[in-house]
Amino acid sequence: MKTKDFDIITVDNMDQWLDEREVVEIECLISDLTGVPRGKILPRKKFNKDNGMRIPESIISYTVTGNWPDNAIINEYIRDVDRDMSLIPDMSTLKMVPWATDVSAQVIHDCVFNDGTPVDYAPRNVLKNIIKLFNDKGWSPIIAPEVEFYLVDKNVDPDIPLKTPAGRSGRSETARQHYSIDAVNEFDLLFQDLYTYCDAMNLDVDALIHEVGAGQMEVNFVHGDPLKLADKVFYFKRALRETALKHGMYATFMAKPMAWEPGSAMHIHQSIIDKKTKKNIFSNDDGSPSQYFYWYLGGLQKYVPSAMAFFAPYVNSYRRLSKFTSAPINVKWGGDNRTVGFRIPKSDAQNRRIENRVVGSDANPYVAHAVTLACGYLGMLHKIEPSAEEVGNAYDSGFDLPESLNEALKLLRNCEDLQNVLGKRFCGIYTAVKITEYAEFTRVISSWEREHLLLHV
Prior knowledge:
Radius of gyration: 22 Å
Largest sheet: 8 strands, mixed
């Protein structure tokens, strides 16, 4: 039977969509603060499209290690009773699960409390709130993420360093193959499956390139609405991991998975369209950069250092931020300059945009999109002027960013503007999660310590 495609899947046409595809179960998904997919898998007949389902509100706020952040900060915001929240499906996100053994669909849900109010610290709701700030001004923010990742050999022992996998030739990459077509073709079968999955899920993947590192790739997405793009990146990470497993390897979005290779970023291109005129507000009528463009840059420069706990959310994330690995260490800006934190790609006036190069690939896409837009919004709101354009090598100016998660969390706790625009509960709960993760990490004794300290000190 030929299946019908719908421009938008709604409650009214959902049953027809599912029936035509003979779906037997549905994966009901939310993103927790770390970006981990959580939820339930339901038989088709148990899926309640009207009332959703309920899970504990604490599910959003677990650490990446699966632990509850049992500290004084979390207790300020989440009651000890751990009440339920309801999950309401967003039918526009209904997709097939193309790698599933049983015929399955997946749908992203929004989190609401039992009285119907949105869960204010749920990542998707945080992004919705920031988009609303722009909409209330008559603006539509536009973004385009570029997501880097590594393909690595399967590794079941975390004490053993990662290695690049063998491709069609049977050999692993031992040298960096930036933009090499042949190096990408080594994994043709994997990427053929990946594109098939992405097409089945309508993820609008625009381009695939080989990045600097051995086994490092990058996928670009077609520009569009920040919420829809966050959904697509959320789905893409699942699809890529599943595809890699099918081909006997891992795909990782870890910011710095290998000591001697560059880290992985999620560069976010951003611009703003006036809803009435459909023009890019970053450009004047004569094509020159507008005051909004400069204020947005000023906001990024002022607030990104305090927002780094969102953009670089793990201890490992800060290993990526080094001038020796093509990653930004500053909040300078410049035209077509890859040594700055905020690059302005060459474009015409309507496509003028700012590329935030600071964000790591390990960041939650909902959180990353929300926070970078919030920084720019605050810049326009407070009319913050940026520094002069950087025309030289910005690495020579040194670090402008926090160099550890602990330092980043201190900056976030002292930034009232970010807390007010993102939500104090969201920032507080997020901080509690990250403090717990940082404390867990500090208790780990590394192989470096055993090697160099065990018998020498």
